[in-house]
Amino acid sequence: MPDFALLAVFLPTFFFVSITPGMCMTLAMTLGMSIGVRRTLWMMIGELVGVALVAIAAVMGVASIMLNYPQIFEVLKWVGGIYLAYIGVQMWRAKGKMAKLDQQSARISNGALISQGFITAIANPKGWAFMISLLPPFINVDKELAPQFVALLSIILFTELISMLAYAAGGKSLKIFLSRGDNIKWMNRIAGSLMIGVGFWLALG
After folding, report:
1. Across the chain, which distance is largest between two alpha carbons, in Å?
2. Taking a C-beta distance cutoff of 8 angstroms, is the pair 121, 112 a contact?
3. How does DSSP assign 49-64, residue by residue?
4. pLDDT band at 122 (very low <50, low <70, confident <90, very high)
């Protein structure tokens, strides 16, 4: 286990980094708005798996190689970004009809949602750089590595999950607010714009 003093510093450090708006949090909020928190959990599964792989790779030193060869990210970034932007365009085209937006969202399979989260997590070079800079200082080389890493990774995944749930719930609340009266069109456009923005952010970031 890591030192309690290190954990006391790591917990708030990673929490504030995780809760800060980013690609994954924006994606969680957008999906929470368009398909609800329950179905957004599928995206969260993919994102958590991606974050875990990035953290493992960072500790193993693979991340430094990936950062030196950023072209490795390009295909994943562009494919994922284009797909997210496509979904956003479809939301824009809903033309104020809630049913059409719901039908469009319902066509997104659970596997596709998992893929969205996974690609968004692993195709973000900033995520790799962050794991490289964050994890090593909190690992005591004088103690066994595995228990320390398991503890830190558990904190990372738990914090990410709580943060995404908060953003997804916020998106659902925004959906309820905008659904009152004649605001469906604006809800569609906000959700669509956020999704398009995440797509461009992923592709060009």
Report:
1. 62
2. no
3. HHHHHHHHHHHHTHHH
4. confident
Nearest CA among 174, 43, 22 for reference residue 111: 43
- For 141-164, give one letter per residue: b (16+ CB within 10 A) or e: eeeeeeebbebbbebbbebbbebb
User: What is the sign, positive or negative, of the torsion defined by CA atoms of 145, 150, 151, 157?
Assistant: positive
CA of 150: how far to CAs of 55, 56, 71, 153, 157, in Å?
10, 10, 30, 5, 10
Site of tokens 């290190």:
6
Give the pLDDT confidence score for residue 78 in this predicted structure.
Answer: 76
- 103, pLDDT greater than 60: no
Sequence-distant (6+) residues with CB within 8 A of 38 are none
The CA distances from residue 90 to 59, 129, 150, 196, in Å, are 40, 33, 41, 10
AA letter at 54: V
Distance CA 201, CA 205 (A): 5
Cα–Cα distance, 41 to 48 (Å, whole number): 10
Task: Check if the beta carbon of residue 173 is closer than 8 Å to that of residue 2.
Answer: no
CB 58 within 8 A of CB 130: no
What distance in Å separates the CA atoms of residue 124 and residue 177, rounded to the nearest whole number?
A: 32
Question: Using CA atoms, how far apart are residues 51 and 160, in angstroms rounded to an integer?
Answer: 9
Report the predicted TM-score, pTM, of the whole model to 2 decimal places.
0.71
Q: Residue 49 CB: number of other CB atoms within 10 A?
A: 16
